[in-house]
Specification:
It is a single chain. With about 325 residues, this protein is α/β, with parallel strands linked by helices. The protein has 2 domains: about 5-70, no CATH class; about 75-330, Alpha/Beta hydrolase fold, catalytic domain (Rossmann fold), CATH 3.40.50.1820. It contains 12 helices and 8 strands. It has helices spanning about 25-40, 45-50, 55-70, 115-120, 120-130, 145-150, 165-185, 200-210, 240, 245-250, 280-295, 315-330; strands spanning about 75-80, 85-95, 105-110, 135-140, 190-195, 215-220, 260-265, 305-310. The chain has an 8-stranded mixed β-sheet, sandwiched between helices. Strand 5 (about 190-195), helix 8 and strand 6 form a beta-alpha-beta unit. Helix 1 (about 25-40) runs antiparallel to helix 3 (about 55-70), helix 5 (about 120-130) packs parallel to helix 12 and helix 10 packs parallel to helix 11. The relative contact order is 0.11.
């Protein structure tokens, strides 16, 4: 028997309603070779195998179990949404499951189809192996029509983008969150976080604000907080009057018990509406932070705004910020 004889085509079931089971070749690849070396050892004859059958089985089982438990696992799944009227593809990544499942955390990530570019699995693997983050399940939601589903619920912009944001909000709250709990077999996650980039970041922030009874923290990478109900070239346009998210938070009576993490890069764009020599993505984020602070709904240390002078608008820059965000959200 050789290593190639083992089954390497089986799928990974990370989020099973009954258990977390690993049968993927990625998890087996290292331990199989060790098992093969034991079984093919020329010093083992048939008599020895019969005599030491039970101890050998236990050793092989232990090797397999330890190999599986040390791995970060990934799979794709699918969930039908009645709110979105489509099948939603999910990419799910999890660290080894703790014995006490009350210690398990959840990250919902917009634009799940970009998790490869975001380098999520590699970064989680590195941080977890260094014991820098707690046990975690990440559910990356693949976008449908992101220009319609991502936005501010009930408040499309002046071009009617984001007109299905309320449907996406309902999907996260009524369908995805219960699905994640059921499949992780937990009644409640220790911490629930939602995050996204660009328009997906705007969406993540809006959902966190709307669903602060379920969500504890939000991460926004280069959020589209310019979102406005009037063209900024209109003669009567005003940042104070026409930026949708700023007005929503300013006028809200909610006291959302959230913690906030924002990022913006200094080389994301050249647009500077107010001609203050600060690009709009930084201005818009900074202004939103001030709106939140002025509401006195959280402590100053509950808001973190990271700026990178050379940061650009894309996953190459965002992935460099992801480790710091994950440690902030789930650090030990």
């Amino acid at each position: 028997m050789c290593c190639e004889d083992w089954d390497r085509t089986s799928d990974l079931r990370v989020m099973s309603p009954t258990s977390y089971r690993c049968s993927t070749s990625r998890c087996k690849i290292k331990v199989l070779c060790l098992r093969c070396q034991i079984l093919n050892n020329p010093l083992l004859d048939l008599g020895m195998l019969k005599e030491y059958k039970l101890p050998l089985i236990l050793v092989l089982w232990l090797i397999t179990a330890l190999g599986c438990k040390s791995k970060i696992k990934q799979q794709d799944d699918e969930l039908y949404s009645r709110h979105l009227q489509r099948h939603v593809t999910l990419t799910i990544i999890n660290t080894p499951v703790p014995g006490d499942k009350t210690e398990l955390n959840l990250l919902i990530l917009n634009d799940g189809q970009e998790m490869g570019q975001f380098k999520v699995k590699e970064i989680i693997d590195s941080l977890y192996s260094k014991k820098l983050i707690q046990p975690l399940v990440i559910v990356g939601v693949h976008a449908g029509d992101r220009m319609k589903e991502y936005g501010v619920a009930g408040n499309p912009d002046f071009l009617k983008r984001g007109d299905k944001a309320s449907h996406y909000d309902a999907f996260i709250n009524n369908e995805l969150y219960p699905f994640a709990k059921k499949n992780a077999t937990v009644r409640k996650f220790k911490t629930v976080v939602i995050a996204g980039c660009s328009q997906g970041g705007l969406s993540a922030f809006d959902i966190a604000w709307n669903r602060a009874d379920k969500i504890d923290k939000v991460g926004v990478f280069s959020g589209s907080f310019w979102w406005r109900d009037k063209d900024d070239k209109a003669v009567d346009y005003s940042d104070d009057k026409n930026r949708i998210m700023h007005n929503k938070i300013r006028s809200s009576r909610k006291k959302a018990a959230l913690k906030y993490w924002f990022y913006a890069g200094g080389k994301e764009e050249e647009s500077d509406r107010d001609k203050d020599s600060i690009i709009d993505v930084i201005d818009d984020t900074r202004d939103l932070v001030e709106v939140i602070k002025n509401k006195n709904i959280c402590l100053p240390e509950d808001i973190r705004f990271v700026q990178e002078p050379n940061g650009k608008h894309g996953y190459e820059s965002w992935s460099k910020q992801l480790p710091a965000f994950l440690i902030w959200a789930f650090g030990k």
